[in-house]
Specification:
The complex is a heterotrimer.
Chain A: H1 2-28, H2 34-39, H3 45-54, H4 61-73, H5 87-122, H6 127-140, H7 144-158, H8 174-208, H9 211-219, H10 223-252, H11 255-260, H12 266-275, H13 279-307, H14 309-312
Chain B: H1 31-53, E1 72-74, E2 78-80, H2 91-127, H3 129-144, H4 147-158, H5 162-189, H6 192-199, H7 204-240, H8 252-258, H9 260-263, H10 271-295, H11 298-302
Antiparallel strand pairs in B: 1-2
Helix pairs in contact in B: 1-2, 1-10, 2-3, 2-5, 2-7, 3-5, 4-5, 5-7, 6-7, 7-8, 7-10, 8-10
Chain C: H1 16-27, H2 32-41, H3 46-60, E1 69-74, H4 91-100, E2 105-107, E3 113-115, E4 118-123, E5 129-134, H5 148-156, E6 174-181, E7 184-189, H6 196-200, E8 224-230, E9 234-239, E10 252-257, H7 261-269, E11 275-276, H8 284-288, E12 293-298, E13 303-308, H9 318-326, H10 330-337, E14 342-344, H11 369-379, E15 383-388, H12 395-408, E16 412-417, H13 423-426, E17 433-438, H14 444-451, H15 466-477, H16 481-498, E18 501-507, E19 509-514, E20 517-518, H17 527-530, H18 533-536, E21 538-539
Parallel strand pairs in C: 1-10, 1-11, 15-16, 15-17
Antiparallel strand pairs in C: 2-3, 4-5, 5-7, 6-7, 8-9, 9-10, 11-19, 12-19, 13-17, 13-18, 14-18, 20-21
Helix pairs in contact in C: 1-3, 2-3, 9-11, 15-16
The chains are: A mainly alpha, B mainly alpha, C alpha+beta.
Amino acid sequence: MRRMVIQRILIGFATLWVVSVLVFIGTSILPGDVAEIVLGQTATPETLAAYRAERGLDQTLVMQYVAWVGDMMSGDLGTSKAGGASISSLISGRLANTMFLAAIVAVISVPLSVMLGLLAAMYPGTWVDRTLTFGTLSLISVPEFFIATFMVLILAVKLHWLPAIAHISPDDSFLKMMRGLAMPLITLIIVVSAQMIRMTRAGILNVMNSPYIEMAILKGVPRGRIILRHAFYNAIGPIVNVIALNLAYLVSGVVIVETIFAYPGLAKLMIDGVQTRDLPLVQACGMIFCGTYVVLIILADVAAIMSNPRLRNPK
Amino acid sequence: MTDTSANPDTETSIYDELPDAPPKQKLRLSWMGKLGVTVVGFWLLMALLGPYIAPFHEADIIADDSFMPAFSQTEGEGKHWLGTDYIERDLMSRIMWGARTTIGISFSATLLAYFIGVTLGIAAAVAGGWIDMAFSRVNDAVLSLPSIMLGLLIVVALGTSIPILIGTAAVIYAASVFRIARALGQDIMVMDFVEAARARGEGLWWIITREVLPNAAMPLATDFGLRLVFVVLFISSLSFLGLGIQPPMADWGSMVRQNLDGLGYGSYAAVWPALAIASFTISINLIVDDISATSGGSLARKMI
Amino acid sequence: MTDFNKNLPTIANLSAMDRETVKTGISRGATRREVMGWLVAGGATIAAAGSIVATATSALAATPKKGGKLKFASDLHGPSDTFDPGLNTSTIDYTRGRSHYNGLVQINDDLTTRGELAEEYSSNADNSEWTFKLRQDVKFHDGTPMTADDVIYSMSRHYGEESTSTAKTLVADVEEWVKVDNYTVRAKMAGPNGDLPVILGTPQFKIIKDGTTDFQNPVGTGPFKLAEFQPGVRSIHVRNEDYWRDGPNVDEIEIFAITDKVARTSALLSGDIDLMQALDPKAIGQVESTDGVGIWSVDSGAYFGICCMTNQAPGNNPDFVKAMQYIQRREKIVKSILKGQGTVGNDQPINVAYGVDHCAELPQREHDLDKAKFHLQKSGVTAAELHVAEVAPGMTDICLLAQREAQKIGLDLQIKKVPNDGYWGAVWMKTPVNVVTWNMRPTANSMINLAFAPDAPWNDTLWADERIGKWLMESRAATDPALRHEIYCSMQALINEESGMVIPAHRNYLDAKSDKVEGIGRMPLGSLGGYEWPEFAWRTDV
């Protein structure tokens, strides 16, 4: 077990390196560089050259990458090539925002979805299952910007119950924060829960088909007990995996929610970084996202192994 | 969009309890499955015929006003059954034209994703060693980055054309398929019937095509439905960033996005294409549910 | 002539009786919607009625009240947000700069100038030397007095090889900035230029402290001090109690962006923000029908352009350009895409917003498919690719409209939509046919100089005609108004006839605000009255 975790952490570092190379190449092949984008319409060849010289953009790409790796090793994230602010100052506040939002969504949506998924799996084919299936599919198949905008129009513009933008500051009272975050929370819970419900149901139904469950059924064990005592434990592996991937999505992929509710988070920051070709910024975000992903997947694997006695002692 | 695959990188898998040889069963549809087939059939028909029977061309800017309500009329042009969009085009015609674009792109991208993901995933599982290691790391890297960001990178670098959009979505979603296919492949490779085939001295190709693929097919099909939804939503989220399908081509996701302003003053122009997306993707998943229930959950059904 | 003078009416345009009705109604507490209802019933368009109500409310406004906070949402922000005036390119930067710094001169709503940090300024006889006498009572936020050294340093950042200033070209004809004494500076020009003060009124020429290199913690002289600045998140500005003028009216402003236009409008309608930049014309109806908010539309010379590059096919064929110009449905663009918040263009940049320099005599080019077809056939072109980025709201729609018309004359106009980021560097002035937008410039001379002079770095279609250069020089020296007008007319006629530029429409600056905010100007060079509002806006409800 320990060996496996250490091995996975080493593999994680390999993944981080691959991401840094991918992101570097990806951002470099985009048309235009940060100088052209910052100076925009009123750039001239001279001001472009001056800007590149000032921000160290006149070095070769390989040199820029090597310099970045060196800084990274010494814990320095560098400064933004676009605005000149330090990357750590750009990231710190948003990292907290992102983690805060993701944590609340996770705390609500994970138990909720597992419960609903179990419920659907207990009564497959009944109206409970059908309603849940139909409901989750309906929610999952509507673009999230549609859900978010629709909610803003009803709850903020028409009814004035909630603020249209999620501008919170650490000094706000808890209630004010929750009011501000209510709509982003609901949107994200809808987006991630639908999939977790479906995968929980699918995971359990799959296990239900295995010989030993069949045996239990034939022996006359009540179905609720079969699902909770046997099937669920065996399905935990794939379920935590889906949960881990959804949590990773909450950290890195919620750009639309961040944009619509003007909530300063990391996902939008990375998109902004790509759009300004601000390489150190994109790299830093990429590292955070990849790191989160690696950690979550390791945790999911550990949880899967812990829950399954057969995997604890592999043959 | 959320991007998940059901299988972790370890030996665990939902499918590791599969019986040695999956029973061949005749597909039987529930009433919901039948509803799904009807709706999907309708949209497929629309994808084929839509452009020929639509009252207007998708690019026609002909109406009197933008965001006209349903059943309104433009003098000398005709009736707008679903009203008009933000730039005075007939909404129903655009939904009919858009069926071809949206369904075409999402189907081809998902199929391509499956082709890439399954090929590489099985290859990694069968080959093992450093090939597996290299494939898996690149795959992890792709999975760990948000799909919308990857989409942005590829589309901005290569330009927005339909083949590039399909390729982009396919590459991004192939990563999830790869994980499933590789895990399945690994599971199946150690199963008795494969080992028996190996003992018989069958070649690798024979084992993959005759033993591994058929056994992995059903579980993979279950994933197909969700993946298709993600592709449709992925294309529409690109349009949120101002990328996506080239105008004036109609595509349901972009239509929702472009007409979103109308919601504010009571225009349903964004709702109709959203309904089109929902009806199509839900129906696909209802069919998939029935397929997987027939193949996998037969015993679970008996319990009811 | 078509109806070219589509300026929105103000309360002053109403008859005395109507004016009284509106004023009495408003002062008695009638809602905006009610008053607009009367006006629309009387035959006014919604946009016109909105404009009348807005100006009436302003006219009725009593003395500004002090206190309160303002929240302003712009349309774009990101890691490149900066307080370096030379690198300012976006509305959010300009607005922040206006809150934090001052310029030497300020531009009035009618595009005349008045001194700001310069108490007075004057030129020598032939406008080749400008002298600025600085105020002596101005202090930076850190307490140090502002002197000529600060001005010289600020100006020096727009010169030299190491300058990254986006406004470098605008002052290229100033050869030297000289410190005359501690409170006097002089600009020595290469030639006569009467426009220098108005150029110095543009946002990039804000005065910073001598030696400033760190723009994360900038020191300015402006009406607000910086309390918080997070690029791409927000900035908070608090009243500068030691301001050298009367001081701003509100205690605090918060500046940030909501990049999604629908969300931005919703935030205004729900009362979460007080001011918003860049209202989508489609949302005018929604804003006007909501109590408590209204549009703020300022007529301007800003324009949309489709650039047919004259150095390559098909734009090097004048007949192709003519065909592109004749297929434009200009009235339809103004009505349907801009929802009335703009004016038709005449394939040259100087519209009526430039006042006397606009050539009203020049015939308006109309939508004419026969002529378009004739020119297209003469050119032999059958297909072309048009690269479009949404450089201004409505640009893509204008191109879609052109595409349908092109089809009618047998031109296959392929639209290639490309993202905004990287557009100016990789597409504009490079691909055969592309799009551009220009903000209005303070004078017709600087507009033409910027984008049509033969040696202009941003000559969009690379159309070089020596006559334009010659006429620009002549117009600067011309003192006789009739002669000056004649020169300007010649330039506009030449551009209209021979450049590769298609200018189908001019757009207003269309923003929106809460009715509780007053004191927003109408200077037409930028959003919300040319970004001038931070110092002068005030709340009615404090």
